[in-house]
């Protein structure tokens, strides 16, 4: 995947401008999906993933980031991460359609320690729903 492309370019689907009375979230999602993937912040990734936008391209990027930062996060202790939560809470069919990504995420989760109770519940739900895939 070319990370200099945007989700909009990769999907070849230009959304019209959001209505003038749109929420900040809607305006933000429209703007973020036009930004090159390499220029998205972690918060931008989280926001798009949480809205199920561009998952085909963004989940691998998010999983790579989570894997790269897992050792530092584990060493720091208490782990409560919005990007991880957004990734974990995608619907089950997303993971069933990309089992290699589900296994990648599970491997990263095994690197983490001292998860917050909220994240641990999401991990447990993820693993329960996908136990046959993992």
Concise summary:
The protein has 134 residues and is mainly α.
Can you describe what's shown?
Helix content is 60%, strand content 0%. The protein has 8 helices and no strands. Helix 4 (55-76) runs parallel beside helix 7.
Structural descriptors:
134 residues, mainly alpha, 8 helices, 0% strand
Layout of SSEs?
Layout: H1 7-11, H2 24-32, H3 42-50, H4 55-76, H5 82-88, H6 92-96, H7 99-109, H8 117-129
Helix pairs in contact: 2-3, 3-4, 3-5, 4-7
Tell me the fraction of residues in β-strands, as a range: under 5%
| Largest β sheet strand count, sense and barrel closure | none
The tally of helices reads 8
Shape: globular
C-alpha Rg, in Å? 15 Å
Fraction of residues in H or I helices: 55-70%
Taking all residues together, what is the mean pLDDT?
A: 94
Distance between the termini: 25 Å
Which residue ranges are poorly predicted, with pLDDT under 50 across at least 5 consecutive positions? none
Number of strands: 0
């Amino acid at each position: 995947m070319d990370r200099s492309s945007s989700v909009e370019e990769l999907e070849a689907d230009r959304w019209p401008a959001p209505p003038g009375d749109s929420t900040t979230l809607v305006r933000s999602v429209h703007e973020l999906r036009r930004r090159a993937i390499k220029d998205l912040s972690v918060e931008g990734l989280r926001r798009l993933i949480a809205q199920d936008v561009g998952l085909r391209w963004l989940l691998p990027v998010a999983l790579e980031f989570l894997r790269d930062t897992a050792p530092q996060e584990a060493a720091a202790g208490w782990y409560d991460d919005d990007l991880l939560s957004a990734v974990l809470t995608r619907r089950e069919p997303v993971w069933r359609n990309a089992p290699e990504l589900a296994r990648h995420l599970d491997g990263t989760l095994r690197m983490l320690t001292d998860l917050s109770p909220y994240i641990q519940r999401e991990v447990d739900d993820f693993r329960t729903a996908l136990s046959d895939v993992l």
